[in-house]
Amino acid sequence: MNKYELLTILPATLDDAARDAVVDKYVKLIEANKGTMTTINKWGLKKFAYPINYKNEGYYVLLEFEATADVPNTVEQLMRIDESIVRSLCLKK
Fold first, then answer.
1. Is 16 exposed, middle or buried (0-12, 13-18, 19+ CB in 10 A)?
2. Where is 51: in which H helix or E strand?
3. What pLDDT is recorded for position 61?
4. Which CATH architecture has domain 2-92?
5. Helix (H) or strand (E) holding 71
6. 7: β partners
7. Angle between helices 16-32 and 71-81 (to 10 degrees)
8. N vs C: which end of the chain shows fewer Cβ within 10 Å?
9. CA 67 from chain center: how many Å?
10. What is the H or E stretch that residue 57 is in?
11. Maximum distance among all alpha carbons in the chain?
């Protein structure tokens, strides 16, 4: 099992319930692939250094988890096509 950090940016226009639903969706995906969540840090709204898709701020969430090497690829593929994710980055610790 490897340790990973997954930083995601959600649109600022989502309400709290929608944000929690998106985060829970990916937490359940990681756990369904036999990964274990270590921490979930919600950083809140932050301004971007430059506009992304004509938006100037987003809601940042950092997920730390342990999983096998194929899980981050699966999660990143689904995040790329998900319209409720502005950007995401998964790094091995």
1. exposed
2. strand 36-52
3. 97
4. 2-Layer Sandwich (3.30)
5. helix 71-81
6. 62, 89
7. 150
8. C
9. 15
10. strand 55-67
11. 39
Task: Report yes or no: 66 and 1 within 8 Å, Cβ to Cβ.
Answer: yes
Residue 6: which of 48, 40, 34 has the closest Cα?
40
- Residue 31 in tokens: 């756990």
Q: Annotate 14-37 with DSSP letters as a single string.
A: S-HHHHHHHHHHHHHHHHHTT-EE
Q: Do the beta carbons of residue 38 and residue 3 sit within 8 Å?
A: yes
Q: Which helix (H) or strand (E) holds 90?
A: strand 87-92
Q: How many C-beta atoms lie closer than 10 Å to residue 32's C-beta?
A: 10
pLDDT in tens, 44-56: 999 999 999 899 9
The answer to whether 76 and 8 are in contact (CB under 8 A) is no
CA 34 to chain centre: 17
pLDDT along the chain (93 residues), means of 10: 95 94 95 94 95 94 95 94 94 94
